[in-house]
Write a structure and sequence with these properties.
The complex is a heterodimer of chains A (530) and B (169).
Chain A: H1 8-15, E1 21-22, E2 26-27, E3 33-36, H2 41-50, E4 54-62, E5 72-80, E6 84-91, E7 98-100, H3 109-120, E8 123-125, E9 173-178, E10 190-196, E11 199-206, H4 214-218, H5 223-230, H6 238-253, H7 259-287, H8 291-312, E12 321-322, E13 325-326, H9 332-357, H10 360-366, H11 374-380, H12 384-389, H13 396-399, H14 420-443, E14 462-469, E15 472-480, E16 486-492, H15 495-505, H16 514-521, H17 525-529
Parallel strand pairs in A: 2-14, 3-6, 7-8
Antiparallel strand pairs in A: 1-3, 4-5, 5-6, 9-10, 10-11, 12-13, 14-15, 15-16
Helix pairs in contact in A: 5-6, 7-8, 7-14, 7-16, 8-9, 9-14
Chain B: H1 2-11, H2 23-40, E1 44-50, H3 56-64, E2 76-78, E3 87-91, E4 94-95, H4 99-107, E5 114-118, H5 120-124, E6 135-137, H6 139-142, E7 147-149, H7 156-168
Parallel strand pairs in B: 1-2, 1-3, 3-5, 5-7
Antiparallel strand pairs in B: 4-6
Helix pairs in contact in B: 2-7, 3-7
C-alpha cells in the first residue's frame, strides 16, 4: 500500500455523533468507504458540509457477494482539498426502500437522487424535486433498470405522460423550447427558456435523451472489455473516462502501473485537454461571429488529431489506455514528433491569444457575460475550468496527486469573475500549462514496461478513482463480481454537476448570448445521460 | 485587424490541394462535384442528428468542416432545419429516449430524403449493444437507411466518401 488509510473523515463524523465502520473490501485505503446507519445519512451530509467538503456523487447499488443479496445500499462520496476523498454508505430498509434527501445541504445531489429513484425505485424523502430525471415519460412507472430483477434486454412498453417543466404565470413571460434536436452539430437535450423581452429569466435543462444504459451494459463485462465501453461514455473525454475506469480497477486489484505507463497516460490526458480547449476556444469565438479563430483553432486541432492517429492509432485517442497500462509504446522518433508538435502548437495558440485579446468586437461579447459568483460555484461544487473561472479550484491532479502528477507541479489557473471571458482565459492558461507538462513528461519519460499484468480481484471487491479529465473530475466506482466480471459500474462525469452552473449563469443574459455561454461551459450530454 | 490579415497570409490556404496528402479526398471531390451540381443545384444540405452518440462522431463531422477537408467547397453544408435538408446524417445507436425525435426529424424532411447512418453505433449499436433496454436499435431499425459509414468514429475522409456514395445511388 502506497498510502496510509485516511481516517480523517471517520474521526470527524465520530465527533458529530455518526458511528462509522471501515469497509475492508473497498480500495484504495486513502479513499476509504465507511458504513453508517441509515438514520445518520442526513447528519453525515450535514457534517460534510460543515467541514467544507465537496459533494462528489450520490449513487446506489444492490448488495454484492459479501453482502446480503437482497440488500440495497446508498453511497455518497465527498472530497476535501487537503483530506482527499471519502465515501459513506448505508443499508436501506428491506421492505421500505427509502432514504432522506441531502439536497438541502448539497444542491447538486438532487439530480443524482432523482437518478437513484428512476433506476432503483428508491423513495427519496424531503426532496425539493420529485420529478423523474433520465427516465422519460414514456417509460413504464415500474421500470427500474438497475435492479437485478430487470433484464438488461427488456423491451419496455410505451407509456404516456408529460414532463412538468417549470412555467411562469406572469404576464409578459414567454417560453422558448429548444431541442432535443439542436440547430448545430451537437448532442441532444432540451432547454426551456422563460424570457422577458430579450432577457432570460430562467433556463431549465432536461436531459436523458442520449441515455444508453452504460451502467447496466457494463455488468458482466470483464475489465478488458469494459474499458472500451467506459471510453465511450463521452467521446471527447475518452482518455479521462478510460483512465478513471482503469484506475478504479487497478486500485481494486492492488495493481501498480509501471512508471512509463503512467507518464504516457499523463501525456495522453494533457494532449486531450489541449485539443479540446483549442477546439472550444475556436467554437466560442465562432458563436460570437469571430470565425477567424474557429478556422485557425480547428487547424491546430486537426494537426493534433493526425499525429494521434499516426502514433496512437486513433485520432481521438480512444482505446489508448488499457487496464494495467497503455496500449502503445511510442518510440524515440514518435516522442520527438510529439514534443515538437506540442511546442509549435503552444506557441501558435499564444500568438492567436494576442489576436483574440486585442479584438474589441469579441471582447465586447465575452466580458461580463454569464457570470457565476464564487459563492454559487462553491455551493454547487463546480468542477474543472468552469469552477476555476469562478473561484472554486478542485483539481484532482493536486488533491489526489496520482502518478504521474505526484512528480509534477500543476499550475491551476485561478479565475474569480466567472464570466465567459474568464472561462476562455482559464482555457488559454490550461493549454499553456498542459503543453509545459507534456514537454516535461516527454523529456523525463522513464524506460520500462507499458503494461502491468492484470489479474481481476476476487468477487465483492470495490474500487474508487477520481481523475482530472479535461472537463474536470471524473469519479468512478466499480465492484467486481464472479470470474473477474464487473458487477456494478458507476461513473459521474463533471457535466452532471456543471450543467447546474450553466442554468445559473444564463439568468439575465440575452437569449442570443446563450450559445456563447453554453459553449464556454461545453458540458457533455452523453456523459450526463450515461 | 492587420494581425488577422497577417496570420491569414502566413498560413495561406491549407485546404488539401486535391492531389496531395490525401489522395482519397481528391478523387472523392472530383466525383462529388458534378453530382452535387447536377442533382442538388450545387448545394447539398445535410441535417445532422445525434440519436445517442458518445459525441466522438460529432467531433469528426466538425473536422470534416475544418480547413483541411473543407467539405463546403463541394457545395455540401450543414443546415439547422430538417425542413429544407436533402440528407439526414444520423450518429449513435438510437437511444430509446431519442426514437421519437429522430422519427419526427425524418418526417419533417421533404421526400425523397437520403439517410446516412454514420459510425459503428449507428450501423449496429456498437459497443453499447442491441440487447440493451435503453437502445431502441440501429438507425436502420427506425428509419430507412441509404448508406452506412463504419468506423468508431469514422474519419473525415470516410464521412465524405459515405456522403458521395449516398448521392451516387
Amino acid at each position: 500500500m502506497r498510502h496510509l488509510a485516511n481516517t480523517w473523515f471517520a474521526e470527524k463524523l465520530g465527533d458529530h455523533g455518526v458511528y462509522t465502520q471501515y469497509l475492508e473490501d473497498h480500495h484504495p485505503a486513502h479513499m476509504p468507504c465507511l458504513e453508517i446507519r441509515i438514520l445518520d445519512w442526513e447528519q453525515a451530509a450535514k457534517t460534510a458540509r460543515l467541514l467544507d467538503m465537496r459533494l462528489v456523487a450520490v449513487w446506489a447499488t444492490e448488495g454484492g457477494c459479501h453482502e446480503q443479496d437482497e440488500g440495497m445500499y446508498a453511497y455518497m462520496a465527498y472530497a476535501h482539498p487537503e483530506h482527499r476523498h471519502a465515501m459513506v454508505r448505508t443499508l436501506l430498509g428491506k421492505t421500505k426502500r427509502e432514504i432522506s434527501s441531502i439536497a438541502k445541504h448539497y444542491i447538486a445531489a438532487s439530480r443524482m437522487e432523482r437518478h437513484m429513484q428512476d433506476m432503483f425505485g428508491i423513495t427519496v424523502t424531503n426532496t425539493p424535486d420529485q420529478r423523474r430525471w433520465l427516465k422519460h415519460e414514456h417509460w413504464p412507472e415500474d421500470a427500474h433498470p438497475l435492479l437485478r430483477s430487470f433484464a438488461h434486454d427488456t423491451r419496455m412498453e410505451k407509456a404516456c405522460g408529460e414532463y412538468p417543466y417549470l412555467h411562469s404565470g406572469s404576464e409578459g413571460v414567454y417560453e422558448i423550447p429548444v431541442g432535443p434536436v439542436h440547430a448545430g452539430i451537437i448532442e441532444p437535450g432540451q432547454f426551456r427558456f422563460l424570457a422577458v423581452g430579450e432577457q432570460i429569466l430562467n433556463m431549465e435543462t432536461r436531459f436523458g435523451f442520449v441515455h444508453k444504459g452504460i451502467e447496466k451494459a457494463m455488468k458482466g463485462r470483464t475489465a478488458e472489455q469494459g474499458i472500451k465501453l467506459a471510453g465511450r461514455t463521452s467521446g471527447d473525454s475518452t482518455v479521462g473516462h478510460a483512465w478513471a475506469f482503469a484506475q478504479a480497477c487497478e486500485y481494486a486489484a492492488n495493481t501498480d502501473v509501471p512508471a512509463r505507463a503512467s507518464y504516457l497516460r499523463g501525456i495522453l490526458c494533457e494532449r486531450e485537454r489541449m485539443a479540446n480547449h483549442i477546439g472550444d476556444v475556436g467554437a466560442i469565438c465562432n458563436d460570437a461571429a469571430f470565425a477567424f479563430m474557429l478556422v485557425q483553432m480547428h487547424r491546430l486541432r486537426e494537426d493534433m488529431a493526425r499525429l494521434h492517429a499516426d502514433i496512437f492509432g486513433h485520432r481521438l485517442l480512444m482505446d489508448a489506455i488499457v487496464v494495467g497500462g497503455v496500449a502503445v509504446d511510442p518510440d524515440a522518433e514518435a516522442c520527438r514528433a510529439l514534443l515538437e508538435q506540442t511546442r509549435t502548437i503552444a506557441a501558435e495558440v499564444e500568438h492567436l491569444r494576442t489576436i483574440y485579446a486585442d479584438n474589441p468586437s469579441i471582447q465586447e461579447r465575452v466580458i461580463g457575460s454569464g457570470p457565476v459568483s464564487i459563492d454559487d460555484a462553491k455551493d454547487i461544487g463546480l468542477l474543472g475550468y468552469v469552477g476555476r473561472a469562478s473561484g472554486n479550484y478542485p483539481d484532482e491532479r493536486i488533491e489526489e496527486a496520482y502518478p504521474p502528477y505526484d512528480n509534477l507541479d500543476v499550475n491551476v489557473a485561478q479565475g474569480k469573475l466567472g464570466d465567459v471571458s474568464t472561462r476562455v482565459w482559464v482555457r488559454f492558461e490550461e493549454i499553456a500549462d498542459s503543453a509545459r507538462m507534456i514537454i516535461h513528461l516527454l523529456e523525463n519519460l522513464p524506460k520500462g514496461d507499458i503494461q502491468a499484468d492484470w489479474q481481476a480481484p476476487e468477487a465483492g471487491i470495490s474500487g474508487f478513482s477520481a481523475i482530472e479529465s479535461w472537463r474536470g473530475e471524473i469519479a468512478c466506482w466499480l465492484r467486481f463480481g464472479e470470474a473477474g466480471a464487473i458487477d456494478r459500474y458507476f461513473v459521474r462525469d463533471p457535466s452532471a454537476i456543471n450543467w447546474l452552473g450553466l442554468e445559473l449563469a444564463v439568468r439575465e443574459v440575452p437569449v442570443p448570448d446563450f450559445p456563447l455561454n453554453n459553449k464556454s461551459f461545453n458540458c457533455s450530454y452523453s456523459g450526463n445521460d450515461i | 485587424m492587420i494581425r488577422i490579415l497577417r496570420q491569414l497570409t502566413k498560413i495561406g490556404s491549407i485546404t488539401e490541394p486535391l492531389a496531395e496528402a490525401n489522395n482519397e479526398i481528391e478523387q472523392l471531390g472530383k466525383q462529388l462535384d458534378p453530382v452535387i451540381r447536377k442533382r442538388f443545384a450545387g448545394s447539398l444540405a445535410i441535417r445532422a442528428v445525434d440519436a445517442g452518440s458518445c459525441n466522438g462522431c460529432e467531433l469528426e463531422i466538425h473536422a470534416a468542416n475544418n480547413a483541411y477537408y473543407d467539405i463546403e467547397r463541394f457545395g455540401i453544408h450543414f443546415t439547422a432545419s430538417p425542413r429544407f435538408a436533402d440528407m439526414l446524417l444520423v450518429t449513435g445507436p438510437v437511444a430509446r429516449n431519442m426514437e421519437t425525435a429522430l422519427k419526427m426529424t425524418f418526417d419533417a424532411m421533404p421526400q425523397p430524403a437520403l439517410v446516412v447512418a454514420m459510425g459503428d453505433c449507428a450501423a449496429n449499436c456498437g459497443v453499447f449493444g442491441k440487447d440493451n433496454y435503453a437502445i431502441a436499435g440501429a438507425v436502420s431499425d427506425i428509419i430507412p437507411v441509404d448508406v452506412i459509414i463504419h468506423g468508431c468514429p469514422p474519419t473525415p475522409t470516410d464521412i465524405i466518401q459515405g456522403i458521395l456514395q449516398a448521392i451516387g445511388k
